[in-house]
Write a structure and sequence with these properties.
It contains 4 helices and 6 strands; from the N terminus they run ααβββαβαββ. With 145 residues, the protein is of the alpha+beta class. Strands 1-2-3-4-6-5 form a 6-stranded mixed sheet, sandwiched between helices. β3, α3 and β4 form a beta-alpha-beta unit. The longest helix is centred in the middle third of the chain and has 15 residues. The termini are far apart.
């Protein structure tokens, strides 16, 4: 929750609260991982947690629900390592298609593209900012083998 608090800009309302995360973790097919500032997953007890992901799968598909690296630890390759971990773990569970949704102009789009995610759809005006503006959501897919 500490990473969630600092990683998601408040103006976009993307962060989940503790209850939403707890409820998601109870659902079948939910997966998560933490990464340390030393790029180990799972982190050793003495390591700082630098990021996490939360996903949910059904049949041969999985959706990346949350993905975050704390701002202090960005631009050090941790996002690439954690996203690679997500993709590989999904592959090992027999997933063939991975999905995610992000707001238009999210800087993480560069990371997702580097791992092969492709835009497949738009939800117009899906996200609402704190000042009332609306931003499109971009749905992306990665087909894995």
């Amino acid at each position: 929750m500490e990473v969630m608090t600092v990683a998601f800009p408040v103006e976009f309302g993307e962060a989940w609260n503790r209850r939403q995360v707890s409820d998601a973790l109870l659902l079948a097919g939910t997966h998560h991982a933490l990464i340390s500032s030393e790029a180990t997953s799972p982190p050793a007890p003495h390591d700082a947690v630098a990021g996490f992901y939360l996903s949910r799968g059904l049949f041969d598909e999985e959706e990346l629900l949350l993905f975050a690296i704390a701002p202090t630890w960005r631009r050090r390759g941790l996002g690439h390592a954690l996203l690679g971990h997500f993709v590989e773990n999904a592959r090992q569970r027999g997933k063939k298609r991975l999905f995610l949704e992000m707001r238009r102009n999210n800087p993480a789009g560069i990371l997702y593209a580097a791992h092969g995610f492709q835009p497949i759809g738009i939800r117009p005006r899906y996200y609402r900012t704190s000042n009332g503006d609306r931003i499109d959501a971009i749905t992306q897919e990665l087909v894995i083998t």
